[in-house]
Write a structure and sequence with these properties.
It is built from 7 helices and no strands. The chain has 134 residues and is mainly α. The model has no long low-confidence stretch (mean pLDDT 94).
Length: 134
C-alpha cells in the first residue's frame, strides 16, 4: 500500500466517524492499514499508527465513534516516510495537534494512555536520532 493511501484512509475514516457514522469500508480500510504497518518507514509513526488504529477499531466496535475519530485525528498528519520526517513540523504537532486532542480528553476513551504512548514514541524517535540537532 502506498504511504499516501494510508493517510487518505485515516483522514476519510476520521471524517466519517466525526459525522457519528461508520460503515464496513471504514473498518476494512483501517484493518488494511494495520496489515501494512511494516511499510511505514518512521519507527515512531509505525508504532503510533499500529497502536492508535487498533485503539480506534476497538472504540468503533464499542460504538464510541467520536472518540475513535479523535484518535485518528491525532495521527492523521504523522510522517510515514523518512523524507516526510525531515519535513515534518514537530513543533506544530506539539503546539496544535496534541492540545486539540487533549482539549477533548473527556470524550476520548483511553485518552491518557494514548497521549502517553504518542509522547513516548515521539520522544524515542527524536532522542535517539540527530533530528534534534538540526
Amino acid at each position: 500500500m502506498e504511504l499516501r493511501k494510508i493517510n487518505e484512509i485515516i483522514i476519510s475514516s476520521r471524517n466519517i466517524l466525526f459525522n457519528n457514522r461508520v460503515n464496513d469500508t471504514v473498518i476494512s480500510s483501517l484493518e488494511e492499514v494495520l496489515s501494512c504497518w511494516r511499510e511505514i518507514e518512521v519507527d515512531s509513526s509505525r508504532n503510533i499508527l499500529k497502536y492508535c488504529i487498533g485503539e480506534a477499531l476497538q472504540q468503533i466496535k464499542q460504538s464510541k465513534l467520536t472518540s475513535a475519530g479523535r484518535v485518528l485525528n491525532l495521527i492523521h498528519n504523522l510522517p510515514l516516510s523518512l523524507d516526510g520526517l525531515n519535513n515534518w513540523d514537530l513543533d506544530y504537532f506539539i503546539s496544535m495537534e496534541l492540545p486539540n486532542f487533549l482539549e477533548h480528553f473527556e470524550e476520548i476513551h483511553n485518552s491518557r494512555d494514548i497521549s502517553l504512548y504518542v509522547f513516548q514514541q515521539i520522544s524515542n524517535q527524536y532522542f535517539n536520532s540527530d533530528l534534534l540537532n538540526r
